[in-house]
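User: Fold this; tokens only.

Assistant: Input:
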Amino acid sequence: MRAISEQELHFGVFGMPDLIMDGRLSASHEYREILEALVGKSHPMKSEALRGIVRDEVSAKSTPLMVELSSVLNANWADLDEHRRKYGNGRGRDHHMAVRRIRRALAKAKA
């Protein structure tokens, strides 16, 4: 078990969703509240456990921005899992292509 740092959360968990949401996430006060609630919490070393903790914290807030963040997080994690399944850890993910792919998937899901 180890504590979650603010940098790990911002860059490791919320970095890609912030790109997808065009910076609206990092500018919101709800995002600050989530960071404050999560910083310092202990979690197992598995990324699935961290995803669960983040998912619970985001779903506790029912604002439109948090609902959008929840769908973006889920789409990002699905895309990341697919990339890892396909390439393993040997090939980095093209973030610009991932942003476009996830935005298309979210638009298709809304339609």
